[in-house]
User: What shape does this take?
Amino acid sequence: MSKDYCKYHPLTTARWHCATCYIQVCDDCAPAGTDMEALPNCILCNQSLQPVRTGPVVTPFWLRYTDFLRLPFSLPGLGLLLIFLLLPMFAPENLLLPAAFVSYALLALIGWGLLRRGASGEVSFPGLPELGQMFAGPAAPLALLLAGVMTGLVLMTQKAALLAFLAALVFVGALPALLMVVARDKSVASLRQKDSWISVFQGVRFLYLPLGGGAVVLFILAHAFFGLLSDVATPGVAQGMRNVFYGYGLWVVFAVSGYCLIQFQDALGFEGERGRNKVRKSAVRRIDTNTAKLEVYLKEGMYDKAVSHLRGLAEKQRNDIAIQERYFQLLVFLKDKSGVAHQGESFMAALIAGGKGEEAVQILTKVRLVMPEFRPEEPAVAFDLAKACVECREFARAAALLDGMHQTAPHFPQLPEAYMLRAKLLSDKLGQSAAALDVMEYLVTRFQKHPRYESMRGFWKQLGGKDVSDEFH
Assistant: This one.
């Protein structure tokens, strides 16, 4: 079976198909929603995606017929057949018919486990945990139905052997189709629907001839062996042998029918339990929805949607450096000068909050290449960025970031601290004592009730500031 590959990840196998956009995508490009049982939606058109059937290549059942014929002879199978052989021998003769009904029902239940294994591509006997689940779904009603038919054929044999034999041939020939209808639709009630039978025959087509024919041959051989031995056996032993011969054939037919479901899964529209579980579990390992959407938008050239998408994320997650950087880089790529300046401020704030002041200064340099007069609009960002510049020994840039803050942000709570830093930079690092004195004049005049007023006043005097009392000395 050939593989389809994701449109956006050419080396990744596609798992989903969009019938509206006519594209195939992988799990990463089909982000899961809140309901893990629901199908994901296409990022481009928001319509439900459909799973792509990419099952493994299955060896045709007619090339593995020996595997199916040997299957009941596995150790668990032999043990069960031995039990079914011995049970009727200890049952009273007047209870042999009810015992036969129970035996056929149990044989069919075990056969359902073989069918489920075959439907996953495995030709092996089910383990104990799987046999413990054999009453789930349509298994029990199907087992009762088959047991009723087989018991009825036994009764018919006692009155009209030839008619019972011919009826059994018809039943066995149709048995593989019956099993596939129930397994595909997961309901015994679907046997009453003509369309279900037709779809199975149309899916398997002429290959149903060896399938149904093989079931008939198995029945004839089992019937012949039983006929040779039953003449010399007691009723209990005869029923035990019937259980063994018919049970063997029944298990082989169940296993082959299940294997045909996966071999013709596309034609039959069959989706096994493992496939559904794999789809559900894959939703857990998918990447973040926002990342998937953004990647698709960018690869499709839908930059307006990408910008809008990232803008919303950046506003909601202001301290997420990865999102802020992605948005900033996209605006740089699109040469959006105003957007670069505005987003650059948010990006630098996220970097500073993350302890990456040096990188924030580098972004400031890039932003000023686009807008030389750029200054952060938020005074807190400007103050933090100035402190980052000081750590990088870019004193002139730090002082410039704080210039005029009393006009642009007169009510900024940290204005005194910001201007103290600017004054010290001007005085100690840049040799501009006069400018530093002007800054301190403003501080000691306006913030006389500030907790650090005495400290500001001392530095102001150190720079040469004089108050009225000093003029009389």
Q: What stands out?
A: The mean pLDDT is 83.
